[in-house]
Amino acid sequence: MSLYIILPALFIHLYLPPLMSSREGHLLDLINDATLGVCIPGVALSGLLLMAVAYLQRNPASRPHLNRVSFRLLVYALIANIILGVIVLTPSKEVTCSFTSFLGTASIMFSGCMSCCIALNLLFVLVYGFNGNRLEIYYILGSLLLVGACNITPWAAGELGWYAANGTCWLLGPPDVQLRWLIGTQSVWMILMSLLEVLSFVQILVFMVRHQFRIQSLRANTDTFSGNLSPTQSKSGIATLRSSLLRPPVMRYRPIIIRIGLYPLLSCLLSTTSCFADVYILTHSELTDYNIAVRILDTFAYSLRPLLYVLLAATDPSLLRALRTLRPSEHTVKTTQPWDLSVSTGSRHTVPHDLARADLDVKWNRGRREAYELQGPGKEIEITAGDEEEQMQAESIAQQI
Questions:
Q1: Residue 138: enclosing H or E segment and its boundaries?
Q2: SS3 275
Q3: What is the pLDDT of residues 316-332, one digit of tens each?
Q4: pLDDT tens figures, 36-82
Q5: Hey, is 361 helix, strand or coil?
Q6: Cα 96 → chain centroid
Q7: How far, in whole angstroms, is CA 310 from its chain's centroid?
Q8: In order of start, what are the domains of the chain with their CATH numbers?
Protein backbone atom coordinates (compact mmCIF):
# COMPACT_ATOMS: atom_id res chain seq x y z
CA MET A 1 0.00 0.00 0.00
CA SER A 2 1.27 3.45 -0.75
CA LEU A 3 0.38 6.98 0.09
CA TYR A 4 1.53 8.32 -3.23
CA ILE A 5 -1.59 7.42 -5.14
CA ILE A 6 -3.88 9.03 -2.64
CA LEU A 7 -3.99 12.28 -4.58
CA PRO A 8 -5.74 12.23 -7.92
CA ALA A 9 -3.12 14.72 -9.05
CA LEU A 10 -0.56 11.96 -8.61
CA PHE A 11 -2.69 9.70 -10.77
CA ILE A 12 -2.44 12.23 -13.52
CA HIS A 13 1.36 12.15 -13.52
CA LEU A 14 2.10 8.62 -12.44
CA TYR A 15 -0.39 6.40 -14.18
CA LEU A 16 -1.91 8.34 -17.04
CA PRO A 17 -0.20 9.23 -20.31
CA PRO A 18 1.00 12.82 -20.59
CA LEU A 19 -1.41 13.45 -23.45
CA MET A 20 -4.90 12.69 -22.19
CA SER A 21 -8.26 13.71 -23.46
CA SER A 22 -10.08 16.67 -21.98
CA ARG A 23 -12.76 14.28 -20.70
CA GLU A 24 -10.23 12.30 -18.68
CA GLY A 25 -8.61 15.45 -17.35
CA HIS A 26 -11.98 16.81 -16.27
CA LEU A 27 -12.80 13.51 -14.54
CA LEU A 28 -9.57 13.58 -12.56
CA ASP A 29 -10.18 17.19 -11.57
CA LEU A 30 -13.51 16.10 -10.14
CA ILE A 31 -11.79 13.28 -8.24
CA ASN A 32 -9.28 15.74 -6.85
CA ASP A 33 -12.02 18.08 -5.64
CA ALA A 34 -13.95 15.19 -4.07
CA THR A 35 -10.81 13.94 -2.34
CA LEU A 36 -10.10 17.32 -0.80
CA GLY A 37 -13.77 17.59 0.12
CA VAL A 38 -13.61 14.52 2.38
CA CYS A 39 -10.02 14.95 3.56
CA ILE A 40 -10.36 18.50 4.87
CA PRO A 41 -13.37 17.70 7.13
CA GLY A 42 -11.59 14.59 8.38
CA VAL A 43 -8.50 16.52 9.44
CA ALA A 44 -10.52 19.36 10.97
CA LEU A 45 -12.83 17.07 12.94
CA SER A 46 -9.91 14.95 14.12
CA GLY A 47 -8.20 18.04 15.47
CA LEU A 48 -11.35 19.17 17.27
CA LEU A 49 -11.88 15.71 18.74
CA LEU A 50 -8.31 15.52 20.05
CA MET A 51 -8.74 18.92 21.70
CA ALA A 52 -11.94 17.68 23.34
CA VAL A 53 -10.15 14.56 24.57
CA ALA A 54 -7.35 16.71 26.00
CA TYR A 55 -9.91 18.79 27.89
CA LEU A 56 -11.68 15.71 29.25
CA GLN A 57 -8.36 14.25 30.34
CA ARG A 58 -7.72 17.33 32.49
CA ASN A 59 -11.16 17.09 34.10
CA PRO A 60 -11.00 14.89 37.25
CA ALA A 61 -14.60 13.72 36.81
CA SER A 62 -14.26 12.61 33.18
CA ARG A 63 -10.67 11.35 33.23
CA PRO A 64 -11.47 7.85 34.61
CA HIS A 65 -13.87 7.14 31.74
CA LEU A 66 -11.08 7.64 29.20
CA ASN A 67 -8.68 5.40 31.09
CA ARG A 68 -8.97 2.51 28.64
CA VAL A 69 -6.25 0.89 26.56
CA SER A 70 -8.24 0.72 23.33
CA PHE A 71 -9.21 4.39 23.59
CA ARG A 72 -5.59 5.45 23.98
CA LEU A 73 -4.63 3.33 20.97
CA LEU A 74 -7.46 4.99 19.06
CA VAL A 75 -6.06 8.42 19.93
CA TYR A 76 -2.67 7.40 18.54
CA ALA A 77 -4.38 6.27 15.33
CA LEU A 78 -6.19 9.61 15.06
CA ILE A 79 -2.89 11.47 15.38
CA ALA A 80 -1.42 9.34 12.59
CA ASN A 81 -4.46 10.06 10.41
CA ILE A 82 -4.08 13.79 11.00
CA ILE A 83 -0.47 13.57 9.82
CA LEU A 84 -1.65 11.69 6.74
CA GLY A 85 -4.34 14.28 6.03
CA VAL A 86 -1.92 17.18 6.37
CA ILE A 87 0.45 15.51 3.91
CA VAL A 88 -2.40 14.97 1.47
CA LEU A 89 -3.40 18.63 1.67
CA THR A 90 0.18 19.90 1.36
CA PRO A 91 1.58 20.25 -2.18
CA SER A 92 4.59 18.02 -2.83
CA LYS A 93 7.96 19.70 -3.18
CA GLU A 94 11.00 18.19 -4.80
CA VAL A 95 13.33 19.09 -1.93
CA THR A 96 11.27 17.45 0.84
CA CYS A 97 9.67 14.79 -1.32
CA SER A 98 11.64 11.85 0.07
CA PHE A 99 10.80 12.63 3.71
CA THR A 100 7.19 13.43 2.86
CA SER A 101 6.79 10.06 1.16
CA PHE A 102 8.33 8.27 4.14
CA LEU A 103 6.16 10.12 6.66
CA GLY A 104 2.98 9.48 4.70
CA THR A 105 3.40 5.73 4.32
CA ALA A 106 4.57 5.45 7.94
CA SER A 107 1.42 7.24 9.13
CA ILE A 108 -0.85 4.87 7.23
CA MET A 109 0.92 1.78 8.55
CA PHE A 110 1.02 3.07 12.14
CA SER A 111 -2.73 3.75 12.02
CA GLY A 112 -3.28 0.20 10.79
CA CYS A 113 -1.03 -1.16 13.54
CA MET A 114 -3.04 0.63 16.22
CA SER A 115 -6.29 -0.85 14.90
CA CYS A 116 -4.72 -4.31 14.85
CA CYS A 117 -3.51 -3.82 18.43
CA ILE A 118 -7.04 -2.88 19.52
CA ALA A 119 -8.33 -6.20 18.17
CA LEU A 120 -5.47 -8.20 19.69
CA ASN A 121 -5.89 -6.47 23.04
CA LEU A 122 -9.56 -7.44 23.23
CA LEU A 123 -8.59 -11.03 22.46
CA PHE A 124 -5.74 -11.19 24.96
CA VAL A 125 -7.68 -9.59 27.82
CA LEU A 126 -11.11 -11.20 27.44
CA VAL A 127 -10.22 -14.65 26.14
CA TYR A 128 -6.74 -15.35 27.49
CA GLY A 129 -6.77 -13.20 30.63
CA PHE A 130 -3.71 -11.05 29.97
CA ASN A 131 -3.29 -7.61 31.53
CA GLY A 132 -3.97 -5.05 28.82
CA ASN A 133 -2.28 -2.21 30.68
CA ARG A 134 0.97 -4.14 30.78
CA LEU A 135 0.69 -5.08 27.11
CA GLU A 136 0.10 -1.51 25.97
CA ILE A 137 3.77 -0.58 25.88
CA TYR A 138 4.52 -3.68 23.80
CA TYR A 139 1.79 -2.73 21.33
CA ILE A 140 3.38 0.68 20.81
CA LEU A 141 6.97 -0.53 20.65
CA GLY A 142 6.09 -3.38 18.30
CA SER A 143 4.18 -1.03 16.01
CA LEU A 144 7.03 1.49 15.92
CA LEU A 145 9.50 -1.29 15.16
CA LEU A 146 7.41 -2.66 12.28
CA VAL A 147 6.66 0.78 10.85
CA GLY A 148 10.31 1.79 11.06
CA ALA A 149 11.60 -1.39 9.43
CA CYS A 150 9.10 -1.22 6.56
CA ASN A 151 9.49 2.48 5.81
CA ILE A 152 13.04 3.41 6.78
CA THR A 153 14.40 0.62 4.56
CA PRO A 154 13.25 2.06 1.20
CA TRP A 155 14.01 5.58 2.40
CA ALA A 156 17.56 4.69 3.42
CA ALA A 157 18.04 2.71 0.20
CA GLY A 158 17.30 5.84 -1.81
CA GLU A 159 14.18 4.38 -3.37
CA LEU A 160 11.99 7.31 -2.34
CA GLY A 161 12.31 10.72 -3.87
CA TRP A 162 11.36 13.01 -6.68
CA TYR A 163 10.45 10.96 -9.73
CA ALA A 164 11.32 13.38 -12.52
CA ALA A 165 9.68 11.30 -15.24
CA ASN A 166 6.26 11.87 -13.68
CA GLY A 167 6.96 14.91 -11.53
CA THR A 168 5.74 13.24 -8.33
CA CYS A 169 7.01 11.78 -5.05
CA TRP A 170 7.38 8.11 -5.79
CA LEU A 171 9.64 5.10 -5.86
CA LEU A 172 12.49 5.82 -8.23
CA GLY A 173 12.62 2.46 -10.02
CA PRO A 174 10.59 1.13 -12.93
CA PRO A 175 7.11 -0.33 -12.31
CA ASP A 176 8.36 -3.87 -11.60
CA VAL A 177 10.80 -2.56 -8.97
CA GLN A 178 8.11 -0.34 -7.50
CA LEU A 179 5.81 -3.35 -7.23
CA ARG A 180 8.39 -5.39 -5.30
CA TRP A 181 9.00 -2.58 -2.82
CA LEU A 182 5.27 -1.97 -2.48
CA ILE A 183 4.46 -5.61 -1.72
CA GLY A 184 7.47 -6.28 0.50
CA THR A 185 7.30 -3.17 2.66
CA GLN A 186 3.59 -2.33 2.75
CA SER A 187 0.95 -4.59 1.24
CA VAL A 188 1.95 -7.92 2.81
CA TRP A 189 2.08 -6.48 6.32
CA MET A 190 -1.18 -4.60 6.01
CA ILE A 191 -2.95 -7.73 4.73
CA LEU A 192 -1.53 -9.78 7.62
CA MET A 193 -2.75 -7.22 10.14
CA SER A 194 -6.18 -7.25 8.51
CA LEU A 195 -6.35 -11.04 8.84
CA LEU A 196 -5.37 -10.79 12.52
CA GLU A 197 -8.13 -8.24 13.09
CA VAL A 198 -10.79 -10.44 11.54
CA LEU A 199 -9.64 -13.63 13.28
CA SER A 200 -9.46 -11.87 16.66
CA PHE A 201 -12.95 -10.44 16.33
CA VAL A 202 -14.42 -13.78 15.25
CA GLN A 203 -12.78 -15.57 18.18
CA ILE A 204 -14.15 -12.99 20.61
CA LEU A 205 -17.67 -13.40 19.21
CA VAL A 206 -17.44 -17.20 19.55
CA PHE A 207 -16.22 -16.78 23.12
CA MET A 208 -19.15 -14.48 23.96
CA VAL A 209 -21.72 -16.83 22.43
CA ARG A 210 -20.34 -19.78 24.41
CA HIS A 211 -20.55 -17.77 27.64
CA GLN A 212 -24.13 -16.77 26.87
CA PHE A 213 -25.20 -20.39 26.41
CA ARG A 214 -23.38 -21.37 29.60
CA ILE A 215 -25.16 -18.69 31.65
CA GLN A 216 -28.57 -19.67 30.27
CA SER A 217 -27.89 -23.30 31.11
CA LEU A 218 -26.84 -22.45 34.67
CA ARG A 219 -29.96 -20.34 35.21
CA ALA A 220 -32.19 -23.16 34.05
CA ASN A 221 -30.39 -25.61 36.32
CA THR A 222 -30.71 -23.18 39.25
CA ASP A 223 -34.50 -22.93 38.90
CA THR A 224 -34.82 -26.73 38.74
CA PHE A 225 -32.41 -27.22 41.61
CA SER A 226 -34.11 -24.73 43.95
CA GLY A 227 -37.58 -26.14 43.24
CA ASN A 228 -36.65 -29.61 44.50
CA LEU A 229 -35.23 -28.46 47.85
CA SER A 230 -36.62 -27.31 51.16
CA PRO A 231 -36.72 -23.55 51.83
CA THR A 232 -33.51 -23.69 53.89
CA GLN A 233 -31.71 -25.85 51.36
CA SER A 234 -33.05 -23.73 48.50
CA LYS A 235 -31.65 -20.58 50.05
CA SER A 236 -28.21 -22.09 50.53
CA GLY A 237 -28.33 -23.70 47.09
CA ILE A 238 -29.09 -20.42 45.38
CA ALA A 239 -26.32 -18.77 47.33
CA THR A 240 -23.94 -21.52 46.19
CA LEU A 241 -24.83 -21.04 42.53
CA ARG A 242 -24.87 -17.25 42.77
CA SER A 243 -21.26 -16.96 41.69
CA SER A 244 -21.99 -19.02 38.59
CA LEU A 245 -24.85 -16.72 37.60
CA LEU A 246 -22.83 -13.53 37.87
CA ARG A 247 -22.18 -12.09 34.47
CA PRO A 248 -18.52 -12.33 33.48
CA PRO A 249 -16.87 -9.18 32.12
CA VAL A 250 -17.06 -10.45 28.54
CA MET A 251 -20.88 -10.48 28.84
CA ARG A 252 -21.23 -7.42 31.07
CA TYR A 253 -19.38 -5.25 28.55
CA ARG A 254 -20.71 -6.99 25.45
CA PRO A 255 -22.07 -3.83 23.74
CA ILE A 256 -18.82 -1.97 24.41
CA ILE A 257 -16.73 -4.88 23.14
CA ILE A 258 -18.70 -5.10 19.92
CA ARG A 259 -18.50 -1.32 19.52
CA ILE A 260 -14.71 -1.34 20.01
CA GLY A 261 -14.45 -4.10 17.43
CA LEU A 262 -15.68 -1.69 14.75
CA TYR A 263 -12.29 0.05 14.68
CA PRO A 264 -10.26 -2.95 13.49
CA LEU A 265 -13.04 -3.99 11.12
CA LEU A 266 -13.01 -0.54 9.51
CA SER A 267 -9.23 -0.64 9.27
CA CYS A 268 -9.40 -4.11 7.71
CA LEU A 269 -11.86 -2.92 5.06
CA LEU A 270 -9.83 0.16 4.13
CA SER A 271 -6.45 -1.60 4.21
CA THR A 272 -7.44 -4.59 2.09
CA THR A 273 -9.20 -2.36 -0.44
CA SER A 274 -6.23 -0.05 -0.87
CA CYS A 275 -3.66 -2.88 -0.90
CA PHE A 276 -5.31 -4.86 -3.68
CA ALA A 277 -6.11 -1.69 -5.61
CA ASP A 278 -2.48 -0.53 -5.39
CA VAL A 279 -1.15 -3.79 -6.77
CA TYR A 280 -3.77 -3.85 -9.51
CA ILE A 281 -2.96 -0.30 -10.58
CA LEU A 282 0.77 -1.00 -10.84
CA THR A 283 0.18 -4.14 -12.90
CA HIS A 284 -2.52 -2.65 -15.16
CA SER A 285 -1.40 0.67 -16.56
CA GLU A 286 -3.98 0.69 -19.36
CA LEU A 287 -6.45 3.52 -19.19
CA THR A 288 -9.79 1.72 -19.31
CA ASP A 289 -13.08 2.51 -17.61
CA TYR A 290 -12.57 -0.32 -15.13
CA ASN A 291 -9.02 0.78 -14.29
CA ILE A 292 -10.19 4.33 -13.73
CA ALA A 293 -12.90 3.02 -11.40
CA VAL A 294 -10.28 1.07 -9.43
CA ARG A 295 -8.16 4.21 -9.09
CA ILE A 296 -11.15 6.18 -7.87
CA LEU A 297 -11.91 3.47 -5.30
CA ASP A 298 -8.29 3.45 -4.17
CA THR A 299 -8.31 7.23 -3.82
CA PHE A 300 -11.32 7.24 -1.54
CA ALA A 301 -10.00 4.28 0.47
CA TYR A 302 -7.14 6.56 1.53
CA SER A 303 -8.79 9.96 1.71
CA LEU A 304 -11.81 8.74 3.70
CA ARG A 305 -9.66 7.18 6.42
CA PRO A 306 -9.36 10.31 8.65
CA LEU A 307 -13.06 11.14 8.33
CA LEU A 308 -14.37 7.63 9.02
CA TYR A 309 -12.05 7.16 11.99
CA VAL A 310 -13.07 10.42 13.62
CA LEU A 311 -16.78 9.69 13.13
CA LEU A 312 -16.39 6.34 14.89
CA ALA A 313 -14.25 7.86 17.63
CA ALA A 314 -16.81 10.62 18.26
CA THR A 315 -19.38 7.95 19.21
CA ASP A 316 -17.03 5.86 21.33
CA PRO A 317 -18.72 4.71 24.58
CA SER A 318 -15.85 5.95 26.75
CA LEU A 319 -15.95 9.40 25.19
CA LEU A 320 -19.73 9.64 25.55
CA ARG A 321 -19.58 8.65 29.22
CA ALA A 322 -16.84 11.20 29.80
CA LEU A 323 -18.97 13.90 28.18
CA ARG A 324 -21.95 13.00 30.39
CA THR A 325 -19.89 13.76 33.49
CA LEU A 326 -19.85 17.42 32.47
CA ARG A 327 -23.57 17.54 33.35
CA PRO A 328 -24.89 17.26 36.93
CA SER A 329 -25.10 13.59 37.84
CA GLU A 330 -28.24 11.91 39.12
CA HIS A 331 -27.96 9.69 42.17
CA THR A 332 -31.27 7.92 41.70
CA VAL A 333 -32.39 4.54 40.51
CA LYS A 334 -35.15 4.56 37.89
CA THR A 335 -37.30 1.67 36.81
CA THR A 336 -39.46 1.25 33.74
CA GLN A 337 -41.84 -1.06 35.67
CA PRO A 338 -44.99 0.04 37.59
CA TRP A 339 -43.37 -0.90 40.89
CA ASP A 340 -40.57 0.79 42.75
CA LEU A 341 -37.49 -0.36 44.59
CA SER A 342 -35.97 1.75 47.30
CA VAL A 343 -32.21 1.58 47.37
CA SER A 344 -31.47 0.30 50.84
CA THR A 345 -28.71 -2.20 51.31
CA GLY A 346 -29.88 -5.44 52.87
CA SER A 347 -33.60 -4.84 52.29
CA ARG A 348 -35.84 -7.37 50.57
CA HIS A 349 -38.67 -6.78 48.10
CA THR A 350 -41.20 -9.18 46.58
CA VAL A 351 -41.52 -9.07 42.81
CA PRO A 352 -45.10 -9.36 41.43
CA HIS A 353 -45.94 -12.69 39.80
CA ASP A 354 -46.78 -11.05 36.49
CA LEU A 355 -43.36 -9.42 36.25
CA ALA A 356 -40.98 -11.52 34.20
CA ARG A 357 -37.93 -9.33 34.55
CA ALA A 358 -36.76 -6.14 36.17
CA ASP A 359 -35.62 -3.60 33.62
CA LEU A 360 -33.56 -1.35 35.80
CA ASP A 361 -31.64 1.72 34.76
CA VAL A 362 -28.99 1.54 37.45
CA LYS A 363 -26.86 4.64 37.68
CA TRP A 364 -23.69 5.34 39.55
CA ASN A 365 -24.45 6.19 43.16
CA ARG A 366 -21.51 7.84 44.89
CA GLY A 367 -19.02 6.05 42.71
CA ARG A 368 -20.49 2.61 43.34
CA ARG A 369 -22.96 0.60 41.30
CA GLU A 370 -25.71 -1.25 43.14
CA ALA A 371 -26.09 -4.93 42.27
CA TYR A 372 -29.59 -6.40 41.99
CA GLU A 373 -30.10 -10.14 42.13
CA LEU A 374 -33.44 -11.25 40.73
CA GLN A 375 -34.35 -14.82 41.68
CA GLY A 376 -37.57 -15.04 39.66
CA PRO A 377 -41.17 -13.77 39.52
CA GLY A 378 -43.09 -13.98 42.76
CA LYS A 379 -39.92 -14.43 44.81
CA GLU A 380 -37.98 -12.17 47.05
CA ILE A 381 -35.05 -10.22 45.74
CA GLU A 382 -32.33 -8.87 47.94
CA ILE A 383 -30.78 -5.52 47.16
CA THR A 384 -27.19 -5.53 48.24
CA ALA A 385 -24.15 -3.51 47.40
CA GLY A 386 -22.28 -5.51 44.74
CA ASP A 387 -19.45 -7.70 45.86
CA GLU A 388 -16.56 -5.24 46.10
CA GLU A 389 -13.92 -7.66 44.87
CA GLU A 390 -16.01 -8.63 41.85
CA GLN A 391 -16.79 -5.00 41.08
CA MET A 392 -13.15 -3.99 41.29
CA GLN A 393 -12.19 -6.86 39.00
CA ALA A 394 -14.81 -5.86 36.45
CA GLU A 395 -13.69 -2.22 36.53
CA SER A 396 -10.07 -3.29 36.14
CA ILE A 397 -10.90 -5.36 33.06
CA ALA A 398 -12.93 -2.47 31.66
CA GLN A 399 -9.80 -0.31 31.81
CA GLN A 400 -7.74 -2.97 30.03
CA ILE A 401 -9.98 -3.44 26.98
A1: helix 132-156
A2: helix
A3: 888 998 999 887 654 43
A4: 888 899 999 999 999 999 999 999 989 988 999 999 999 999 999 99
A5: strand
A6: 33
A7: 11
A8: 3-215+248-324 (1.20.1070.10), 330-401 (no CATH)
